[in-house]
Amino acid sequence: MDSVQQLFPQVNPDLTLMIPHLIVLGTALLLLAADVIIPRAKHGVLAWLAMAGYAAALVTTLTYIGENDTTFNGMFRADDISVFISLVVLTGGILSVMVSQGYLQSVVEPGSMPLAEYYVLMSFSILGTMVVGSAGDLLMVFLGIEMSSLAVYALTGFARSRLTSLEGALKYFLLGLFASAILVYGMAWVYGATGTTNLNDIAQVLSGTLTEGSLEPSLLLALLLLIVGLGFKVAAVPFHMWTPDAYQGAPTPVSAYMSVIPKVAGFAAMLRVLVQGLAPLRDEWTTLIGILAVITMAFGNIVAISQRDVKRMLAYSSIGHTGFILAGLAAFGAVTVVDDRSISSVLYYLFAYAFMNIGAFAVVTWLQERGHGTNLDDFNGLYVRSPLAAVAMTIFMLSLMGIPPLVGFFGKYYVILATIEADLLWLAVAVALASAVSAFFYLRVVAVMFFAQPEGEEFRESRAPLLGASVLVMVLATIFVGVFSSEILDLAQNWTDALSTSVPVATR
């Protein structure tokens, strides 16, 4: 904290740990002011303002690497988990803005998707996710995850002239309300059983309770409610019902955004609540998470096979990837904390997933921006019409499938390694089998791009230079983040330093 204080000597010490969050908040307020000041014809500059704000927050976040401190009576904390979550979220936010530019002005009806409101909602969603990653208290977890979710509900229905967008948003919103109620009910049970909402204090109380040899049934009920509520946030089966309709109905850049950032928020909440707060109950919740992982992997990848709409296919693919990440989380606590690779595999997978999945949706957006749809037939002969776009989509599909040396391979490799070290061979085999099943629908997209005959009209001229740049950035990241993954994995592995100094980890 001393190094950060030196950079910002005039800032209240209580706010020093929150500077990246305050920058994002300031960006949202600046965008609101710019909406009034800047003429509507020049609102394209708002994308640059948003990216500049996110980039400033990202650079500031990197100064917190190695920190392990709290403020506001432990409700807010800065450690390497919060740094990594913010890194993923802000990177995903910048890429999402790049993908959105052009689409908002050329694909949908003029005026139906105001740029300022779009970027402001995105900023508050990013801020909410960062708050979850930095939460040290159940109340902060809930406030952050709801701030993120409410903004995404609105973004899902942002194409107000399309009934599919409104239908997806309504379904997402209503189911989200039920999930939030279940989540806060579970938090209430935890508070009733422990007498505190501070995550470290919860872990201390539970450790003492288990040492005495008694486990209240109310804790098991609370655990079940929390997993159900958080399972909805990450689209785990059977809490996934909103995902296909929301992804398909939302504007494609929003689908790209919501496929990553809300998922990061959900897993950040799982890390804070389950790993930090309920670590003494890990024997109970890791079993539940492992079962959910297998069901989610199987359902997502099998149902994706029958999908002809690429956005809907990517929605079920996203469900499958939720299962892969849950498999890494299920390996927590089976070995000593210092040697535990489970949480680092979860963090690394989230980082890898941001590039390859937003990249896949970016190519779909690129196709729509040129006058085509999202059906599989719209990809027919794409290599003939645009070789670079076809190659980019191929790289994203192969990475999602887990082909080396792309970043998706290393994400799955670290998850499998964590499950094997935890002696969960059945879970490692499930990850491998689910990846093999996913090859069918990923390779089908590649096949039609290279071997099918082009259909439909010729591509119209592009008006989205940032979209092409974003695809290039994500292609390079998908290749090189995988090849040079050691530094990122080292940062992800540093979570053990913070955890081992704040959470009791004695085994039962």
Q: Can you give a write-up of this model?
A:
This protein is mainly α and 508 residues long. It has 24 helices and 2 strands. The protein has a two-stranded antiparallel ribbon.
Task: Give a summary of the structure in a few sentences.
The chain contains 24 helices and two strands. The chain has helices at about 1-5, 15, 20-35, 45-60, 80-100, 105, 115-135, 140-155, 165-195, 200-210, 215-235, 245-250, 250-260, 260-275, 280-305, 310-330, 340-370, 380-385, 385-400, 405-420, 425-450, 465-485, 485-495, 495-500, and strands spanning about 70, 75-80. A hairpin with a 4-residue loop joins strand 1 and strand 2 (about 75-80).
Topology record:
Blueprint: H1 2-7, H2 13-16, H3 19-37, H4 45-62, E1 69-71, E2 76-78, H5 80-100, H6 103-106, H7 115-133, H8 138-156, H9 163-194, H10 199-211, H11 217-233, H12 243-249, H13 252-258, H14 261-277, H15 282-304, H16 310-330, H17 342-369, H18 382-385, H19 387-401, H20 407-421, H21 425-451, H22 465-483, H23 486-493, H24 495-502
Antiparallel strand pairs: 1-2
